[in-house]
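Thought: the user wants the 3D structure for the chain below. I'll pass the sequence to the structure tool as-is, report back what it returns, then summarize two notable features.
Action: structure_tool
Action Input:
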Amino acid sequence: MENRITTLFKIKHPIIQGGMVWTSGWRLASAVSNAGGLGVIGAGSMYPEVLREHIQKCQKATQKPFGVNVPMLYPDIDKLMTIIVEEGVKIVFTSAGNPKTWTSFFKEQGIIVVHVVSSVKFALKAQNAGVDAIVAEGFEAGGHNGRDETTTLTLIPSVKEKITIPLIAAGGIASGRSMLATMILGADGVQVGSRFVASIEASSHELFKQKVVEAKEGDTHLTLKELAPVRLIKNKFYSEVQEAYANGVSAEELKTLLGRGRAKQGMFEGNMEEGELEIGQVSALIHDIKPAAQIVEDMMQEFHEAKKEVSNF
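Observation:
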């Protein structure tokens, strides 16, 4: 399959693996890239030298293109960006910040830049900043999310209407059918996060993977908007947050409640009660843990089958 996204990234399938904290290390990224998609290392949970190690291991594990995702709200951002250039990474996804800050820096190094947005307003800002493509992420998505709660079904055609550069859909996509649906709405490719959390190669804890598989409709909720909106599986920590809201908690008090390392505690270390468990609504449709290559293959097979069905309508 060839389109603007496969051509831009030099990949076989227009499937991009989301760069998620505590989940997207070199094993997952290389597995997705080897399967024909674009694997992405999630730098948000990595110290600079840890990121360097993951990049080097990924380069040894695959000869195919891969990228690095950098949320710009984390510390040591300068060091992370320098390492990305020093190690010869060719594709960077930036998020949670102003695209103007780093886009020119990377473009001068010949690096492809993609920015993640949750609204038309920020899509236009990213395009004006000179990025090569945009990920438009709907309200259904896991992890850090947009405050406006715009769903993928609405966001993708809205962004498509206003931009000219390639568009990648994200949020609620875990199957070939949802992939086809977003591409019919105007996307050139899809970014898939939650489905790859429940993969063998994901670096997340096995208890978290199992929690994702067990999740049902309504088990996740977008919260902590005063800090950075995040979709969480409901657990003891989530209940404490909701109780705090009921008692009129301030943003500073929320920061204290959240503390440090809450996501690591849950997603990486396996504390299912006290940890922050970030995942998308589509977790309710994920029923097994399988190799990343199988996920890519299954998605593409279902995509082509659904495409045939649509042509018969």
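Final Answer: Structure generated. The longest strand covers residues 66-71. The longest helix spans residues 292-311.
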